[in-house]
Amino acid sequence: MITLPASIRVVNKSELIDALHIDNQYAHATISLWGAHILSYAPKHDGRERLFLSEKVLFDGSKSIRGGIPVCWPWFGSRDDELQAHGYVRTQPWQLLSATDETDYTELMLSPETTQGAGFDGIAELRLTIRIGKTMHVSLSTKNVGEETFTYNAALHSYFAVDDIYHTELKGLSGIYSDKPLNWAEFETPSPYLFTSETDRVHLNPVEKVSINQSNVSTVIQSYGHDSLVVWNPWSEIATSMIDMDNDGYQKMLCVETAVTQGVTVNPQQTHTLLQVIS
Ligand code: TA6
What we know:
279 residues; eight-stranded antiparallel β-sheet; binds 6-O-phosphono-beta-D-tagatofuranose; glucose-6-phosphate 1-epimerase activity; Putative glucose-6-phosphate 1-epimerase; Gal_mutarotase_sf_dom; carbohydrate binding
């Protein structure tokens, strides 16, 4: 491993999974090297944890980590029965390429063990760059290093922590969304946007700024390079069926995902970047 700056130490999540804990002037954060999965982010100016991590999270490598920010790539959702949902980089070791303490943030850059896998023919270089400061920047860049054009989908599948989903409002979205549980039927975005049942929606209105509002606090999510925002809460029945989610876990989370679901075409030597900024 490269030499770590003063703000970073290695913590052991399991026999298989090491994580990096960042403690700098501005924030605490934890990033698993398995999946380059951000597990936690709490800026020091308010000490509030922004990310949800399931109490029954598994760190045994049997599945993607439940909570935090899974990196979905090179597809989003299910492809077919043979291929795992949300691609194959969230369940592989990533390598830390660089880590530096800068004036306003600590910056880490990671790359997966491989970008090659069944279901994707492109030759790609993938980098996740994370800046931990007063805000957190999470930037996923996909460079075409082959000779053929390719198309990919991806998401920063962020699980945000909420105190109570029944008293949570999502602000900033409008227009039509496609509803997965209702066979992708299209509906008008509700206003106010509240949560009372399973929610699994692809909003094809790629606004740049939304916020999760609770009684006194709000989490602001800015997105760039995306074509969709995905909003997900499994609600009670699905949460109960998950081995890595406690029955009431759905009350404490809301996924708002900066996503490419319609395919981005990347020409040789070009780079496409998906960015989510959390404050
Ligand atoms: O992003 C929403 C979604 O695709 C849902 O349909 C649900 O399946 C969720 O992601 C979680 O997927 P996972 O494979 O992490 O259990």
